[in-house]
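Bumping my old thread because nobody answered last time. Still need a sequence for this structure:
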C-alpha cells in the first residue's frame, strides 16, 4: 500500500473485472450499467461512476472501492436494514409490476419531473403507488433537481394529497431548496437533499442554509463509508442511505454505512439491484420482507465472466481507473504538504 493507504497501481489492477449488465427498466436514461469490480485483502469493491462524470468526481467513487477492497468498514450496530422500493418514471400500468420486485417493502421512492413528462404523469404514477401500497405505505418522491421553486411548489401541492414522506432534491441549488422548504412547510412535506450533499464542496452547507430536513447519503459519490459517516455526524440531520444503480457489491458498501449509523429512522434506498437484469453474486442483495441482511458478499467468477464487458470497454475502464488513481494520489500528496 502506498501513501495514505492508497494501493499501488499494480495492487489495484491485480484482480479487476469489468461488467456490463442490462437494466430491466431504463432508469434516468441508463440502459446498460457498467461497473469495474476489484478485489483486495479486505474483499470486493465497486468502481462504477457514471460514464459522463469527470475524473475529479469519479475519483471519489474509486476511493469508496479502495476502502471496501483494501481497508474494510467500521463496525456495524445493526444486522439488517429496512429498504424502500424504487419506482422509475413508468406509466401507472407498470407500477404494480415494479413494486412486486421489492417484496415486503412498505416505502416507495417514486421518480418525478422526468424530462418530457408532465405533472399529470407524476400524479398518475404516485396515485397508483398509493393505491398499491395502501394508506399505511410511505411514499417519497425524487425530482433530481428538475424543478424551479415555483414548479416544485405547484407540483408538491398536487402530490401532497398522496401523503408524502418527503421530496428528495426537488430543486437543483441549495438556495432554491431553502426557499422551497419554507414554502412547503404548511403542506407537511419535508425536503431531502441528495445532489446538494454529494456534489457540494462542503456537504454541510445545505444544513447551514436551512435547506433540508433529511440527508440522502450515497457511499460511492462521497468517497466511502467513513467519509459518509463523517458528513452525517457534522450535519446532524436524519439520514437515508441510497445506492447509485450499483451491483450487489456496491450496494454492500451502502449497507455498511446504514449498519454503522447510530440512528436510522427511514427505510433506505438500497434495493436497486432489482432494477438490473442480472448481478455478479449468486444471491443478489434484494429485499426480503422489506429488509436486507448485513452479511459478507463475494463476486462469482462465472457471473463475472457472463456479464464481462467487451474488450474495448474493459480498456476504457482500466484507463479511467489509472487516471482516477492519479487524482487520489495527488490529493493525498497535497494533504501532506
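Sorry it took so long. Here it is:
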Amino acid at each position: 500500500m502506498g501513501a495514505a493507504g492508497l494501493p499501488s497501481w499494480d495492487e489495484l489492477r491485480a484482480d479487476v473485472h469489468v461488467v456490463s449488465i442490462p437494466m430491466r427498466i431504463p432508469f434516468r436514461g441508463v440502459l446498460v450499467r457498467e461497473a469495474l469490480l476489484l478485489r483486495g485483502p479486505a474483499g470486493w469493491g465497486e468502481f462504477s461512476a457514471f460514464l459522463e462524470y469527470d475524473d475529479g468526481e469519479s475519483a471519489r467513487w474509486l476511493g469508496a472501492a479502495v476502502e471496501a477492497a483494501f481497508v474494510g468498514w467500521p463496525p456495524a450496530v445493526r444486522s439488517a436494514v429496512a429498504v424502500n422500493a424504487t419506482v422509475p418514471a413508468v406509466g401507472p400500468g407498470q407500477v404494480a409490476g415494479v413494486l412486486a420486485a421489492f417484496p415486503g417493502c412498505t416505502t416507495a421512492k417514486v421518480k418525478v419531473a422526468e424530462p418530457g413528462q408532465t405533472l399529470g404523469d407524476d400524479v398518475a404514477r404516485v396515485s397508483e403507488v398509493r393505491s398499491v401500497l395502501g394508506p399505511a405505505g410511505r411514499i417519497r418522491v425524487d425530482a433530481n433537481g428538475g424543478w424551479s421553486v415555483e414548479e416544485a411548489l405547484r407540483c408538491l401541492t398536487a402530490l401532497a394529497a398522496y401523503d408524502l414522506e418527503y421530496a428528495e432534491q426537488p430543486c437543483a441549488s441549495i438556495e432554491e431548496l431553502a426557499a422551497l422548504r419554507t414554502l412547503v412547510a404548511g403542506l407537511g412535506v419535508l425536503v431531502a437533499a441528495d445532489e446538494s450533499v454529494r456534489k457540494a464542496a462542503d456537504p454541510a452547507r445545505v444544513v447551514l442554509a436551512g435547506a433540508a430536513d433529511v440527508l440522502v447519503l450515497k457511499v460511492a459519490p462521497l468517497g466511502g463509508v467513513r467519509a459518509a459517516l463523517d458528513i452525517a455526524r457534522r450535519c446532524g440531520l436524519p439520514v437515508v442511505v441510497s445506492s447509485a444503480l450499483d451491483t450487489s457489491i456496491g450496494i454492500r458498501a451502502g449497507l455498511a454505512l446504514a449498519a454503522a449509523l447510530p440512528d436510522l429512522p427511514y427505510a433506505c434506498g438500497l434495493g436497486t439491484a432489482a432494477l438490473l437484469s442480472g448481478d455478479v453474486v449468486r444471491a443478489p442483495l434484494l429485499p426480503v420482507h422489506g429488509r436486507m441482511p448485513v452479511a459478507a458478499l463475494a463476486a462469482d467468477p462465472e457471473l463475472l465472466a457472463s456479464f464481462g464487458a467487451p474488450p474495448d470497454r474493459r480498456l476504457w475502464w482500466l484507463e479511467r481507473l489509472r487516471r482516477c488513481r492519479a487524482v487520489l494520489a495527488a490529493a493525498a500528496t497535497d494533504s501532506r504538504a
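The mean pLDDT is 94. Let me know if any region looks off to you.
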